[in-house]
Every structure is written in structure tokens, then in C-alpha cells.
UniProtKB/TrEMBL annotation, chain A:
Ranges of compositional bias, category Basic and acidic residues: 67-79
Compositionally skewed regions (Low complexity) per UniProt: 46-63
Organism: Micromonospora humi
InterPro entries: DUF1800
Protein name: Uncharacterized conserved protein, DUF1800 family
Region Disordered: start-end pairs: 35-79
Highest taxon of source: Bacteria
TrEMBL record, chain B:
Protein name per UniProt: Uncharacterized conserved protein, DUF1501 family
Domain of life: Bacteria
Pfam families in alphabetical order: DUF1501
Region annotation (Disordered) ranges: 233-253
Biased composition (Acidic residues): 235-244
Origin species: Micromonospora humi
């Protein structure tokens, strides 16, 4: 791999999708300096600052009295849905606009890891709060992150934590906490640990009016529990600390990061877990095996869309309301809408995304993206002589090289920049990075 | 595989990524099949597999209302003899299932009780992996119908899912079934047929994932042609995505309504396509809290969609060869929790519906007092059900698909 190919590979994985200019700059800086700047960005993120988060008032439904009529409730629920749509559109715009791309993509990783769905939480404010928590703690060590998440209002609502009481514990949150968020299947816990863990988490409820999690002592089971062979009067904090401090948790989360950033084709190296998540990412990107994963990772739909938007100069925030809605409905057709994971297990990966159905949706969305592309980008493409346009396109989309197959498909379209763009965006070389 | 592949969708990705397409040959083989594909065999039966994601409460689908242990375990949740739709003196269907109750009366609905597998796993994802792969000891990287598809020649049109992401059960060793979107009327081939065909060609030496991405272009042409024919035959109203109205829980399922999915199945069956297996799904059954109402809403959707579909199937010869099988990854704990819900359980019912089915109650009902750590002990291995479907519906030797499994249901099909 040349230095340019190495930094392009790094940027394709660590960010949503680099622009040609970013690859140029990274090539000049070299791999090491590029990695440092990705993991520890200097200076404020001007793109993020120019994309301020929407502010949501009190929950529209929680404000209703007990005697509210059917119509009032319907109206409140409409407002709730509109707020969630606004939050989703904002996040998508921010993913495109953010300069600190590695942090932005890491947030999307954590969202898929602690996969929480707005369709059940039904509160934009609580989903936003969860994103803020993941953003604040997602770079660091696991213990503070898990500690904050077991008391995150959206997660509690999503996994029925508010129904978990000493009289009859509800296992949902405790089970997924161990299976999906910290230890993983085979991580050394059993059914008894799930039941005991549920007791530790009893007592936490969510006040939708104030949007906060509240501890109600009389609902909590203060008795001793035996979890993972340790006997103590565990509560949410000590249970979270126990799980997050296990070596199995560090290994499991590091494995999940490898899976999303490097894929499933090349096994994860041993000793991948760093002292914190940024440290783990550094080990992933510098592992010799990481270089071998080139051309094997299927882009998730959000990665594909956000990367293409960055490269084509499409700013979702600058689109019309209808244009933004089309992007979201395109993601919906691809089955990956942020804040709406299909289940608490998060989104699929790999070739599960490569279906006939998703190809149709990608074709339509690619057409919209190409139609919204920045004029300067199209001009630059048109400035190349027709025979050189596939090369210009490879540079624009940061594809190392086209296969003969794709080159043959692109050649007849060289005179039509928009269709040329569509073909390149749906090509196997662009779908799999 | 390693720990990373343990979630249900990750199984699928491991599957198709690592093994199925190592040769990257799907595009070619499909085209070869296309050249020879005739219409569906008019004597062949069709399997419609309905997956209920989230763990449907079997004890509140087929309710053992006369069992005192049932009332003891669920004092606030229990249905009375008067509320349920009577099957016999001891059990009745959930009141939200009048259409299935009618089918039962007409001998078209079989209830197979106590279906499960050894050493039950109470994780949604692991348990669904087990149901998808039919490998309870160690869920592998292929689905049971994907392995059937491998043996049947690998044409993705033989096994069609109406979910955007491919369910693992349709992923085989060498190929995979097709997923067809419910909401899209047809493709918008802005690129034109030549470009689509060119992008579908294999490129020497490329990674399996890229080969799969290319194969999608070839599959798209095949599947699109089939669905377009079907839709042209019936220019009825398009199915709308009804994602907002369904109650939500955290464990997955298709977002297009079951009704819309089954409508497409019906049109395909009536048109005599080559497809032998259709996979559809309904999610939201993870009723940890406030179960009674939530499950009734979902069972109501299931009942309306299934009975409309079954009635329609009863009107054609092709339709009378359709067998519908309904299952979920597990039932729920016998004892209710304090949230008026139930936690993850084990064995449950499998429902079989259609003209070829010998209706009635089949299999031993599990005891409500002789429990395994609070959960039902299974009485019928789920591979008996699969083997019977493979043998009686898909005319296939189950041994090749189910690692030599010999058990069968008797007197059901």
C-alpha cells in the first residue's frame, strides 16, 4: 500500500467518508500525524458549531393533565414525532458538517451499540440527552460510560427499567446490559446473574415531566445479591462498575469496535483493548491486520450517505425541508434511520446490507445525492476530458481504483455527469470500503 | 466463529460474507438459472414462514384456562374460560384471534404445543439465531432454509423475504434468498439496463463482499422482473409503510405491515412464480410490561392478516397448496412479573395453517407445575417441525438440511 492508500484507508474507516482534499492533506502530514489529529482533534469544530442542536421544551405529552382529551393526546403525539424527526435530521446534518469526524463516527458507533429506539422512548429530548452522554463519555474508559448509561432515562424507558421493582424484578435491562452492552454472550455470566442483576437495577424510574431518571428507594431491593460470584448489596452504580471493570467487557467492546471499523473478514488481534476507547481505536488503526481489511467492509447506509454527502458537497442543513425528508425516507428504505435501530441488538452488518431491496433504494438515493451535488464539484468533474472522468470520479469519491468491470460500466456514461455519479455511488467499489 | 458474530443479524453477515460468496459466483449462476427458469411446478407446495420477533407469549396465545396452575401463576393477567375462544374444555385461543378460531373449526389450523429445544437460551438474539440456523448447540453461519436453497440449486427467487435486510434463515452456504421491498412499486432505473448489467459482472480477485455487491445487480434484474409481472397482474393499491402505528418494543421485526407482506405473497402464489418459500415477519412481542393489551393488539394484527390471507388462498388451486407456519424465538415465563408483563421464557406453540394441514391440537402440552427454573419444558423439538415442513411441503430430505435429524410430527401434514 502506498502512503496515500494507507491514509485513505484510515480516513475511510475513521470518518464517515473523506474528501479528496482531506486525503491530500493527510498524505502530506503522513499516517502518524493524521491518526493523532483524528483521535485528538485540535481546535473547535466549526462545522459542528454551525449546526446547532435543536432545543426541545417540556415533553408535549407529559405536560397534559390526566383529563386530556383524545384530540389533545393525538396532537401531543404528533408533536413528539415531529421533534424526533427534527432531531434525526439535525444529527444527519451534523454528521456531514462535523470537522471532528472521528468523534462523530464514534458517536454513531455507540448509538448502534447501546441501540435505543425513539419509537418506544418517544421523546426527542431524552434521545438527545442520551447522545450527549455518549458524546461526553464515549471517548474515555468504560466504567464512567456504563455508570451513566444504566441511569440514562431513554435506555431505562427502552428496556422497561422503570417497571423493575423489588416486588418483581423485570430482567430486560439487566439481560441486555450484560449480553449486548458489556460482557457479550460467552462473557462468563449466566441466568442467575441476569436475575440478580435485575434486582440491583431496581428502583430507577423516569420522570417524563422533567426528563430525568429518579431513584425511588422503596422500589429498590437493597438486599445482598451474588453477581458473577461476588456477593454484595449491589445497586445500579456498583453493578455497572462490576460489569464495566471486567476484562471480558474490555475485550468485548474492543471486539465490537474492531467489527465495525475493520469488519468480520480479518480476525481481531489479541490485546486490542486500550485503557479507554480512544486508546482502543488507536490500537485498531495501527494493527498490521487493519491494513489487510481494505476492500472488505460493507458501508452501513448511514456511512454511505453521509460520506457521499461530504464528498459531493451536499449540506443537508442547506436543503429544502422536502429535500431533507427525501434523504430520511431514503435511509428508511435502506432500513437504517438514526434513532430507530431495528432492535436493541443494533443494526446488521456486512453483506446483510447487500440485498436486491437495498440496491433499489441506493439507486434512488444516489440519484438524489447526485442531483443535489454542489455545482463546483460537478464542474470539476466536467472539466476533466471524458476519457479521464472515471479517474476524476475515483479521486472525488476516494476510491483507490475501479475494477475493469466498473470502468466498463462508467465509460459509456462519461458524457452525463449526473448518471456517472449515480453509477459510481452504487458501484461495488464504493459500497464496500 | 468468534464472539463477534453472535447477534442475529451478525450471523447473517458472517454467513454471506465469509462463506456463502467465497467464490463470488452468484451472479453467474443466477443468470444461468434465469435462462432455464420456467413457471413454478403446478403441483409444488409453498411454505410461508411467519416470524414473530420479541418472544410471543404462547400461554396467552393458546390459553390453558382450566389449569389451576395457570391462574396461580398469573393472577392479574389470566384469561377466564368465558374470555377465550374455545378449542376444547381445557384450552382456548386468545380473544384477539377470531379468524384463527374459525380456521380451527374448519380443520385448517394445527396447534403444535410445547415446541422448543434443549438447554433453552433466554437471549432474544441467541434464541432467534437458534431458530434461524436450526443448530441449538452452536448456531452456525447458515440458515435452515438457506441450506435447503443450496440443495435446491441456489436461485434466490426460490426463497423470498419481504424484509429489506435478509433474515439469517435464508442465508445458505453458497447463496442466499432474495429480499424484495414491500413499499416500492418498481425500480427507477435511472442508470439504464446496460449500466446495471455491466455493474453486475464479476471482477477477478475482488473481495467476497464486493462480489456480493455486484451480484445484487444481477439478482435485482431477476427478482424485479418477477415482481413486476406479479404486480402488473394485479394493479391494486400499493402497500403503505405503517411504521408509526405499530406498538414498539426493543427486539425487531419488519416495519411494513404483515398484511402488506402477505398481500405480496398472495399475488406471487396466484401468479405461479417459482418461489417455494416466503419469509414474512411481525415484531413487537417483547411484552415485559402491560402485556395483555399490547399482545392483543399484535395478535389482532396477526389474526386479521393471516385469516385474510388463508381465505384468499382457499380460492385457488395454487393457494390450497400453501402452508403457513408461525413461530417466535421463545415463549414467556409462566409466572407474570410485577409490571403486568412476562419475562423471557422457553417452549411455545407453533401454528400451522392452510388447506393441506390436519387441524387440531398436536403434541403434548407442557406441564405448568413441572418447570425448569420457572419455565416450561419443551415436549416437541423444533427440528421435528422443520423436518416435517421440509419433507411434506418442500419435498426435500430433511436429513441433508438438519444434520441427519430423524424426528417428525405425525398426522399434521
Amino acid at each position: 500500500m502506498t502512503e496515500r492508500e494507507a491514509v485513505a484507508h484510515l480516513l475511510r474507516r475513521a470518518t464517515f467518508g473523506p474528501t479528496a482534499d482531506e486525503v491530500d492533506a493527510a498524505e502530506r502530514a503522513g499516517f502518524g500525524a493524521t491518526l493523532d489529529r483524528l483521535l485528538t482533534p485540535d481546535g473547535p469544530d466549526r462545522g459542528a458549531a454551525a449546526t446547532p442542536a435543536p432545543a426541545f421544551g417540556p415533553d408535549p405529552a407529559a405536560a397534559l393533565g390526566k383529563d386530556a382529551g383524545r384530540e389533545q393526546r393525538q396532537q401531543a403525539n404528533r408533536e413528539r414525532r415531529a421533534q424526533v424527526t427534527a432531531l434525526t435530521a439535525w444529527w444527519l446534518a451534523r454528521m456531514v458538517a462535523a470537522e471532528h469526524q472521528c468523534d462523530e463516527k464514534l458517536l454513531f458507533f455507540w448509538h448502534g451499540h447501546w441501540a435505543t429506539g425513539a419509537q418506544k422512548v418517544r421523546s426527542a429530548a431524552l434521545m438527545q440527552r442520551q447522545l450527549q452522554t455518549l458524546r461526553r463519555l464515549g471517548r474515555g474508559p468504560l466504567v464512567p460510560l456504563v455508570d451513566a448509561m444504566v441511569r440514562d432515562p431513554a435506555l431505562i424507558l427502552w428496556l422497561d427499567g422503570q417497571q423493575n421493582t423489588r416486588r418483581a424484578p423485570n430482567e430486560n435491562l439487566a439481560r441486555e446490559l450484560m449480553e449486548l452492552f458489556t460482557l457479550g454472550i460467552g462473557g462468563g455470566y449466566g441466568e442467575v446473574d441476569v436475575k440478580e442483576g435485575a434486582r440491583a437495577l431496581t428502583g430507577w424510574t423516569v420522570d417524563r415531566g422533567t426528563g430525568t431518571a429518579r431513584f425511588v428507594a422503596r422500589r429498590h431491593d437493597p438486599g445482598p445479591k451474588v453477581i458473577l460470584g461476588r456477593r454484595a448489596a449491589f445497586d445500579a452504580a456498583s453493578f455497572a462498575a462490576l460489569l464495566a471493570g471486567r476484562p471480558e467487557a474490555a475485550r468485548f467492546v474492543a471486539g465490537r469496535l474492531w467489527f465495525r471499523y475493520a469488519g468480520a473478514q480479518v480476525p481481531a488481534p489479541t490485546d486490542l483493548a486500550g485503557p479507554d476507547t480512544v486508546g482502543t481505536l488507536r490500537r485498531i488503526f495501527t494493527a498490521p491486520a487493519f491494513a489487510q481489511t481494505r476492500d472488505t467492509l460493507v458501508k452501513q447506509p448511514v456511512e454511505w450517505l453521509v460520506g457521499a454527502a461530504r464528498q459531493l458537497g451536499v449540506r443537508p442543513a442547506a436543503l429544502s425541508e422536502a429535500g431533507r425528508r427525501r434523504l430520511l425516507s431514503g435511509l428508511n428504505a435502506l432500513d437504517q434511520v438514526p434513532l430507530r435501530p431495528p432492535s436493541v441488538g443494533g443494526w446488521p452488518a456486512g453483506t446483510a446490507w447487500l440485498t436486491t431491496s437495498s440496491l433499489q433504494a441506493r439507486l434512488r438515493l444516489a440519484d438524489q445525492l447526485a442531483g443535489a451535488a454542489d455545482a463546483a464539484v460537478l464542474d470539476r468533474l466536467a472539466a476533466a476530458p471524458p476519457a479521464g472522468r472515471p479517474e476524476a470520479l475515483a479521486r472525488l469519491l476516494v476510491v483507490d481504483r475501479w475494477s475493469d468491470r466498473t470502468r466498463a460500466a462508467l465509460a459509456p456514461l462519461a458524457g452525463e455527469p449526473r448518471r456517472l455519479l449515480v453509477a459510481a455511488l452504487v458501484s461495488p467499489e464504493y459500497a464496500v470500503s | 466463529m468468534d464472539v463477534l458474530t453472535r447477534r442475529r443479524f451478525l450471523v447473517a453477515s458472517g454467513v454471506v460474507g465469509a462463506t456463502a460468496l467465497a467464490g463470488g459466483a452468484a451472479a453467474y449462476r443466477l443468470r444461468d438459472v434465469l435462462a432455464t427458469a420456467g413457471d413454478g411446478d403446478p403441483r409444488a407446495r409453498t411454505l410461508v414462514l411467519v416470524t414473530l420477533y420479541g418472544g410471543n407469549d404462547g400461554l396467552h396465545t393458546v390459553v390453558p384456562h382450566a389449569d389451576p396452575a395457570y391462574r396461580d401463576a398469573r393472577p392479574d393477567l389470566a384469561y377466564s374460560a368465558e374470555e377465550v375462544l374455545r378449542l376444547d374444555d381445557g384450552v382456548g385461543l386468545n380473544p384477539a384471534l377470531p379468524g384463527l378460531h374459525r380456521a380451527y373449526g374448519e380443520g385448517r389450523l394445527a396447534v403444535v404445543r410445547g415446541v422448543g429445544y434443549p438447554k433453552p437460551d433466554r437471549s432474544h438474539f441467541r434464541s432467534m439465531d437458534i431458530w434461524h440456523t436450526a443448530q441449538p448447540d452452536r448456531p452456525g453461519t447458515t440458515g435452515w432454509l438457506g441450506r435447503w436453497l443450496d440443495g435446491a440449486g441456489g436461485d434466490p427467487r426460490l426463497a423470498v423475504s419481504f424484509e429489506p435486510a435478509l433474515p439469517p434463515l435464508l442465508a445458505g452456504e453458497r447463496g442466499a434468498g432474495a429480499s424484495v421491498p414491500v413499499t416500492e412499486r418498481e425500480t427507477t432505473p435511472r442508470l439504464g439496463a446496460e449500466a446495471l448489467a455491466a455493474l453486475g459482472a464479476a471482477a477477478p480477485g475482488e473481495s467476497p463482499a464486493r462480489a456480493r455487491a455486484a451480484a445484487c445487480f444481477a439478482d435485482l434484474r431477476a427478482v424485479d422482473g418477477m415482481v413486476r409481472q406479479v404486480r402488473a397482474a394485479d394493479d391494486g393499491e400499493g402497500a403503505e409503510d405503517d411504521g408509526e402505528s405499530a406498538p414498539a418494543t426493543a427486539t425487531g421485526g419488519a416495519r411494513a405491515s404483515l398484511d402488506a407482506q402477505l398481500d405480496l405473497v398472495a399475488r406471487c402464489v396466484e401468479a405461479g412464480v417459482v418461489t417455494r418459500v416466503f419469509s414474512v415477519s411481525l415484531g413487537g412481542f417483547d411484552t415485559h410490561a402491560d402485556e395483555k393489551q399490547l399482545q392483543q393488539v399484535l395478535l389482532g394484527q396477526l389474526d386479521a392478516a393471516l385469516s385474510r390471507f388463508a381465505d384468499r388462498m382457499g380460492r385457488t388451486d395454487a393457494g390450497r397448496r400453501v402452508v403457513v407456519a408461525v413461530y417466535s424465538e421463545f415463549g414467556r415465563r409462566v409466572r407474570a412479573n410485577a409490571s403486568d408483563g412476562t419475562d423471557h421464557g422457553t417452549a411455545s406453540n407453533v401454528l400451522l395453517l392452510g388447506a393441506p394441514v390436519d387441524g387440531g391440537l398436536h403434541g403434548e402440552p407442557p406441564s405448568l407445575t413441572d418447570l425448569d427454573d420457572g419455565d416450561l419444558k419443551f415436549t416437541t423439538d423444533f427440528r421435528d417441525v422443520y423436518a416435517t415442513l421440509l419433507e411434506r411441503v418442500l419435498d426435500t430430505d430433511p436429513g441433508a438440511v438438519l444434520a441427519g435429524w430423524r424426528g417428525r410430527l405425525t398426522g399434521v401434514l
